[in-house]
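Amino Acid Chain and Its Fold in Token Form
===========================================
Scope: a single protein chain, as residues and as a discrete description of its fold.
Amino acid sequence: labelled as such and written in the usual single-letter residue code.
Position: the record begins directly beneath this header, with no further notes in between.
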Amino acid sequence: MSVDEMWALDATDQAACVRRGEVSATELVEASLARIEQLDGVLGSVVACDADRALAQAASCSGPFAGVPTLAKDLLAYPGLPAAMGSRLFAGNVPTDALPYTDAIDRAGLVVVGKSATSEFGLLGSTETLQAGITRNPWGAELSAGGSSGGAVAAVAAGLVPVAHASDGGGSIRGPASLAGLVGFKPSRGATARAVPMVTPFSASISEHFVTRSVRDSDALLALTAPRAREPYGPGDGRPLRIGVYDTSLMGRRIDAEGAAALAHAVAVCTELGHDVRPMPAPPVSGEEVGTAFFTMAGAAMSGMRQMLAPMLGGPFGPEQVEPFTWALIEWYDAQPMGAMERAMGLLGHIDEVMRGYLAEVDVAVCPTILGPRPHLGHLAPHLPFEVIMERTEALAGFTAVHNPAGAPAMTLPLHWTDDGLPVGVMFAAAHGADARLFRLAYQLEQAAPWASRWPAFARTGELG
């Protein structure tokens, strides 16, 4: 296999090729940079790329994934690369200090060739910014790649890199991965090394990980970025699990035909594997409460940032420096009655308690990843009215958002495909700390219903239909 064909291999196989001497780390990184140059002008998945830095890193990297190219999400302050956070406000910001999480990425041997696109400050579920433009889904020119990890999933689905860093505060790994036909795992709270300079109530609900094409890549990367590196969980013994299934979102809405077909397929595969699959009710949590708590925490973070930056900017920034939705969120939060943060924290604690009891009823809970229909570009554009974005965000995250306040692990797997060949993810969740259980199930499902050969035509032709 030539180096130009290795884009179709997962990260584990690419690293093995480097170890065997079939390709050098430098050649592997050069091939990735060439694909980015060739294809990303259409996708818009990469917002910063430093070829010289990446090639220098490739020449001296070591670790289990030595030489494997990757991208860091633009929300992660990876030292030496721009970190605009999807915002014009931070254009030109280049962090210099390493974090425990970025150190772990480097120790793994991954070569960060650039930064992937994200919505401004990771707030929106579609990656369409005034700072960097639109990120398209490789599965269709008018389809959203989701958010806030839209650039990460677009790049991996198109074969620009085999894996890409992503983060999830309410579904921002799982939703985009479902739309792009990838493995999207949100780890338990505390399962990965610290990825922010200072932990806040808002950042505490955010999980860091990677979007991948294979389960083994996701498993290995979680092990390498743990607070203390460990061995991957592996496939396990395949013992039967109690699996509960539900199809109603936190907002009380039923899934569309695509989601129903995907869920039915997942149930059939799990049953054939010998698991005890049974219906269960949706989590007894109010979707409106989850949405209110999330936007309160996000609004507090944005409002606090505005005040914090005032001395450096000569005064608080205004609506001309951030996107319309970000500004509207700040105004919405600032108009809340006294004690809004305390109420939000109370809601999050209540959701955590309820979900601990709910997830203890089964080994794994299964549901759709997103509520249909599949979002197109413009569905969550930042210039839409605030109330419209709030409503559409709550609907889109109606299955995913509940696992973040609970600190619970959850993953989406590309188990189903529509008649016209588009991926539909199914989500699996478990109690806090049961990450290994989900991975062991994922290995089984990947073998029973493999997806490795399914690529968007764009990855091979460069033509976006």
